[in-house]
Protein: Hsp20/alpha crystallin family protein
Organism: Rufibacter latericius
Amino acid sequence: MQRLGSGFDDMMPQTFSSMLDRFFNDSVNSRERLNRFSPQVDTCETEKGYELEMALPGLKKEDIHLDFQQGLLTISGERHFKNEQQDKRYHLIESQYGSFSRSFQFPDTVNADNIEAAFENGILHVRVPKDEQKTAKRRIEIREGAAQPIQLERDNVSAENKGNSSGGTKKKQSATTNGTGTH
């Protein structure tokens, strides 16, 4: 059986050595946090599209860039640390600073021309609508008859048919006919 601490015991160093280790580790971690910023994102899908909310405290809309290319939405920017006050000496900095870039892959059913973004109270709201024509359900008619290869009409006339005087197309003979035209 193990005695559970109050939680406060876990935070207090047991020896001077562990206190120094904790001080230097926290200092190193704080410096690393100044150089990396990975904003938190909430994403969801609705019937009409996709929605993203990204927490970007301390940024202005001019600090944020959105790009969409080949189904990939990239949100990037930079949050600067402003240490303008000379009379303060920071002991711990838990806020994240630095440049960031987050990318999100979308299916080809989105309408890239109608993507909207708004920035309000430190939250970036992005709406990526679905293309109704690409997401609409279509019923495909099934025809009756023997399974035959479906021939698609071509816009281009082949070189062998160009010289034909009957409008540029030749009638194909059936594979079952002989040279006399009888079956």
Q: What stands out?
A: The two ends are 95 Å apart (CA to CA).
